[in-house]
Every structure is written in structure tokens, then in C-alpha cells.
Write a structure and sequence with these properties.
Blueprint (H helix, E strand, L loop, with lengths): L1 H9 L17 E4 L3 H9 L4 E4 L5 H10 L2 E4 L13 E3 L5 H11 L21 E3 L10 H6 L3 E3 L6 E3 L2 H13 L6
Parallel strand pairs: 1-2, 1-3, 3-4
Antiparallel strand pairs: 5-6, 6-7
Length: 180
């Protein structure tokens, strides 16, 4: 799968077809300097791990083993031998970083995928019943929200409050051409 994905991404003739390429589920690994970008990628529903150690060979090995695209700010990483895909993020502003990755890999901003991954540990969220969160969320939230999701790893609980609205405003402001 990684070789097929790499060929597809490298072939400019087919780059516009990437969105419709079924069977490719893009996954990313970001170096620690791009942790905020990784959080936004997760918010949009893209599997993005943060490599907390110093970016180098071990990060590239992990990316290769897990079939992930490397996102890094380290220019020296570009020259390393690596059979996978590496994207050098040149901007320091997270909104511009996000826009660059979305445009480079033709990512969709899909409202159905948003908030489907834990922002902290990158696990897919699971729906839980309202009665299970009674003592775990603020009273106001419990009284006004009916749908909840929980991370199976860290236990963090998510609900549709102001975060989705604020995230959409951020996207409308910084990358409006990518909204559905």
C-alpha cells in the first residue's frame, strides 16, 4: 500500500485524483515541533501521531513501519535516506501549516470526520450513553448535551459544545476554500 500511495502522490498527473482514491487512508507522523498542527489534523479526523523524541532515523523507521507520511520542520530530514513520504513544513504559523498539508495531500475537510479522534492520544473515539457521563462532565453540559464520545485509551470525554463552532470559524477564516 505504501508504494502505491507514494507513486500516486509523486505522479503529478494523478494528484487531483487523490481524494477519490479509495483504499488510501492517509496517516501522518509529526515531529514534536508540529504538535499543534498534529492536534488540528486530529480535529479534522486524520490519524496523526506526534513523535516526542528528537526527529531522526527512529522517527523515519516508525513512519515506514506504520505507513505514515512524515511532517517535519527539520530541513536536515529531507536529505536522509527514506523510502517513505516526507513533507517539510516551512511555516511557523499553525493555520498556514495546516493549509499547506491540506493542499499538498488534497485532504478533505469533512464535518462527519471532525472530532472523531482523541486530540490527546490519537485514538478513535467511541460513542457512550448520556447516563454514563453524569458525574464526569459539568452539570450544565450534562443538562444541555445528548451525545458524548470517549477515548478508549485516556478516557477523555468529548461533547459537541463550542469547540466545533470555533474550529469551523478557524477553518472558515484560514482555509475557506477547503470547507465542504
Amino acid at each position: 500500500m505504501q508504494t502505491k500511495l507514494r507513486r500516486l502522490l509523486m505522479n503529478k498527473k494523478h494528484q487531483n485524483n487523490l481524494i477519490s482514491y479509495s483504499g488510501v487512508n492517509l496517516k501522518f507522523i509529526a515531529d514534536a515541533s508540529l504538535a499543534r498542527l498534529a492536534k488540528w489534523m486530529r480535529l479534522l479526523g486524520y490519524d496523526t501521531v506526534v513523535y516526542s523524541k528528537e526527529a531522526g532515523r527512529e522517527m523515519l523507521r516508525q513512519a515506514d513501519a506504520e505507513g505514515r507520511i512524515v511532517l517535519t520542520r527539520r530541513r536536515d530530514m529531507v536529505g536522509r535516506q527514506f523510502s517513505g513520504i516526507l513533507f517539510l513544513v516551512t511555516d511557523v504559523i499553525v493555520s498556514k501549516q495546516l493549509k499547506a498539508v491540506i493542499e499538498k495531500y488534497f485532504l478533505k475537510v469533512d464535518r462527519e470526520k471532525m472530532f472523531s479522534i482523541c486530540l490527546e492520544c490519537n485514538r478513535k473515539l467511541h460513542s457512550i450513553e448520556k447516563n454514563e457521563v453524569r458525574d464526569l462532565v459539568p452539570q450544565y453540559v450534562f443538562e444541555n448535551c445528548n451525545r458524548y464520545n470517549q477515548c478508549p485509551r485516556c478516557g477523555k470525554i468529548y461533547w459537541m459544545g463550542t469547540h466545533p463552532r470555533n474550529a469551523l470559524r478557524f477553518i472558515e477564516k484560514h482555509i475557506p476554500s477547503h470547507l465542504p
